[in-house]
Amino acid sequence: MALKCGIVGLPNVGKSTLFNALTSAGALAANYPFATKEPNVGIVTVPDQRLDKLVSLINPKSTVATTIEIVDIAGLIKGASQGEGLGNQFLANIREVDAIIHVVRCFDDGQIVHVDGSIDPVRDREIIDTELILKDLETVEKRLEKLRKAAKAGTKEAKAAVEAAQEIMDVLSDGTPVRLAQVSDSAHELLGEMMLLTSKPVLFVCNVDEGSVLEGNEYTRAFDQSIEGDSSERVIISAGIEADIAELDDPEDRAEFLSDLGLSEPGLYKMIRASYTLLNLITFFTAGEKEVRAWTVRQGARAPQAAGVIHTDFETGFIRAEVIKYDDMVQHGSEAAVKEVGKMAVEGKEYVVQDGDIMHFRFNV
């Protein structure tokens, strides 16, 4: 399954710099608002040491990693819900992504202007939350108006839909993103239909200076306090460091650069793991001499669903799945050796795929 994440934030918080570093796409990163007018799109390969290990064991003809599509969306300002700045375009682009990567500025730099004149990541987050809530209120209000007209016919279902929409309206009117609210089953079903902006999962990225990348700073600590109780993920990254890493082609140079900074890995890796956690995603593998490949499914997916990610025919004609645990493959060194010690399992339609499973599907169409 393809994962699409949108990078959002106020102007000049480091969105495009981070996007360039992650995707090496060369998006314009400039010191003025609305440098990004049309959304830039890049593809990021998901790093996975397990895939690398399987490749070293099997030595296949080709290797395919999973990818994430990253969209750099135009900066937002107060009044975006009413069309200020590039608001309407910004909000329309957000609707198209699976998850939001919300970048907040947590560094001082007098050479880079802030659209509101000062550094305050808590305020910045609240501005964007408010604009998304206002846009969602507009969406729900229009839906509620239609439902009320339908309810005049007096059907039980129509009246229930009005109550569900009103429940959602009340949540938003209180200034709460719907992703943080506990709502009834009927309201939850309606949320799925409306695809509200504040229903999307959020990964907060605190963009810090180089000296704060390990332990954060006063801005990140204040930000953490402001999102207590929020189910969203949060990572600390220096977009500047990520930009420097992206310019190093040699793996040894990258490793040395990270070591000098006291880092064990690029911030990209943290972002991807957090994104997978946020969306309840896991990885399974197919492995043979022709190809070793990583695939993404939602946690809880059963074997036929995983087969369907490869090809719909695999799901339709699913017979069984032959499953090897990643640790068993590493321990014994080959599929043949795993079979010899009886560690390969044959699973049916009810098998729940586990992260790291190596799977071979049998099907008939």
Would you spell out the secondary-structure blueprint of this structure?
Layout: E1 3-8, H1 15-23, E2 40-45, H2 49-58, E3 62-64, E4 67-72, H3 87-94, E5 99-105, H4 121-151, H5 156-173, H6 185-194, E6 202-207, H7 218-226, E7 233-237, H8 239-246, H9 251-260, H10 267-278, E8 281-287, E9 291-298, H11 303-310, H12 312-316, E10 318-324, H13 326-332, H14 335-340, E11 345-347, E12 358-363
Helix pairs in contact: 1-8, 4-5, 5-6
Describe the structure.
With 365 residues, this protein is an alpha/beta fold. The chain has helices at residues 15-23, 49-58, 87-94, 121-151, 156-173, 185-194, 218-226, 239-246, 251-260, 267-278, 303-310, 312-316, 326-332, 335-340, and strands spanning 3-8, 40-45, 62-64, 67-72, 99-105, 202-207, 233-237, 281-287, 291-298, 318-324, 345-347, 358-363. The strands form 3 sheets. Strands 2-4-1-5-6-7 form a 6-stranded mixed β-sheet, with helices on both faces. Helix 1 packs parallel to helix 8 (239-246) and helix 5 packs across helix 6 (185-194). The longest helix has 31 residues, at 121-151. The radius of gyration is 23 Å and the shape is flat. The two termini are 22 Å apart.
Could you tell me the radius of gyration in angstroms?
23 Å
Determine the fraction of residues in helical runs and give it as a percent range: 40-55%
Give the terminus-to-terminus CA distance: 22 Å
Gross geometry: flat
**Element order: H for helix, E for strand:** EHEHEEHEHHHEHEHHHEEHHEHHEE
User: Structural class per helix/strand content?
Assistant: alpha/beta
Number of helices, where a helix is a run of at least 4 consecutive DSSP H or I residues: 14
Strand content range: 15-25%
How confident is the prediction overall: mean pLDDT?
87
Low-confidence stretches: 25-37
Beta-strand segment tally: 12
The description of the largest β-sheet is: 6 strands, mixed
Strand arrangement in the largest pleated sheet: 2-4-1-5-6-7
